[in-house]
Design brief:
Layout lengths: L11 H26 L4 H22 L7 H25 L5 H8 L2 H11 L8 H18 L12 H21 L8 H22 L13 H28 L2 H4 L2 H17 L5 H19 L3 H5 L15 E3 L7 E3 L4
Antiparallel strand pairs: 1-2
Helix pairs in contact: 1-4, 1-9, 1-11, 2-3, 2-8, 2-9, 3-7, 3-8, 4-11, 5-6, 5-7, 6-12, 11-12
């Protein structure tokens, strides 16, 4: 008698490696950015990272047979790349000159909060559930704890300029994420990501040039640590992390993959404390708990029908391509944020 077997799913080992990539690698990109901006101007550094990663993704996609993109597709990806990478990641790399990598990751973790609010306020927007509303209030409370005046629970107030820039960055990322839902993107996800990354890199280069960063680029200040960190951001954060993320979206559920949104900040805070001597106090711990709880409420509180059609709010990097947003179950809607 012939036995019939169901198709085997992915091995546990592969799943563990993939989740470790989006949990640990993406969480660590915030610290890598911190190391890089200690020696290199932020916008020029971010530009180099995305131009290199974007060129590799674009060339690989075209070599694998992806069709040549149209002018309309370049326009859409340029808008998304500008909002996600120039406004979003650019704000992160600038702010990390003034704010610790762990606190940066905590504030970036509020991206689902802003996406929820903006998606609700837009014409014919989606009304959030009670759990999502609770998550929004928790997220705002967490930001208030971090940015509130004076001392609280043994911790100093976060730098106000750095905090303001990070909030702008999360808003820019959120607007780009919402815009991407209806944008006309290439059908090949890697090609789309490469185009967005290239566009963001070009815009960051323009911003860095206007800011006079070329005059601040001193090769004598470049260290082995900063160059290794930049390479780590390109290859580990942007390429390995992105590949693992897109694979997980095919073999796992959006809600499980979305758990990286509240693991990354914890990883970033711990690594910043262990490897960079960043302060860890009760103020940070309380804010982290409140913000992560808010993200959990938001990501778990989506309406069932939204889960079925693949709606999921996921942070990254902002540092990063590390930050990826999936707004539709079809491959062409996958785009890299990166991260941290």
């Amino acid at each position: 008698m012939t036995k019939t077997h169901a198709a085997d799913g992915p091995s546990t080992f592969k799943l563990v490696l993939a989740f470790a990539a989006i949990y640990i690698i993406w969480g660590s990109t915030y610290l890598a950015i911190k190391f890089v901006v200690e020696a290199l101007p932020p916008f020029v550094m971010a530009s180099a990272r995305f131009l290199l990663a974007g060129s590799m993704l674009y060339a690989w996609s075209r070599w694998k047979g992806a069709p040549k993109p149209t002018l309309a597709q370049w326009r859409a990806t340029a808008i998304i790349g500008g909002l996600l990478l120039c406004g979003g990641n650019g704000g992160v790399v600038f702010a990390e000159q003034r704010v610790s990598s762990g606190l940066t990751a905590l504030i970036v973790a509020t991206v689902p909060l802003w996406i929820t609010l903006l998606d609700w306020l837009r014409p014919h927007g989606t009304r959030p559930t009670v759990k999502v509303v609770m998550g929004v209030f928790l997220g705002l409370a967490g930001i208030g704890i971090l940015a509130g005046p004076g001392k609280f629970a043994g911790g100093e107030r976060v730098d106000p300029l750095g905090t303001s820039v990070l909030i702008f960055a999360t808003l820019s990322w959120s607007v780009g994420s919402i815009y991407s839902k209806k944008a006309k993107l290439p059908s090949a996800s890697l090609l789309s990501t490469g185009m967005q990354t290239l566009a963001g890199g070009v815009l960051l280069l323009v911003v860095g040039s206007i800011a006079g960063e070329w005059g601040k680029l001193h090769w004598s200040a470049v260290t082995t640590k900063s160059m290794l960190s930049l390479a780590y951001l390109v290859f580990a954060g942007s390429l390995i992390g992105f590949t693992a993320y897109t694979w997980l979206l095919k073999v796992s559920t959006p809600s499980r993959v979305a758990t990286y949104a509240y693991v990354n900040p914890v990883v970033a805070v711990v690594l910043g404390w262990l490897l960079a001597g960043e302060p860890m106090n009760w103020r940070t711990a309380i804010a982290a708990g409140v913000i992560v709880a808010g993200v959990v409420f938001i990501t778990r509180g989506a309406k069932p029908k939204e889960e079925k059609r693949g709606f999921e709010v996921i942070i990254e990097d902002l540092p990063a391509t590390d930050v990826i947003e999936i707004t539709d179950p079809t491959p062409q809607r996958a785009m890299a944020k990166n991260t941290a």
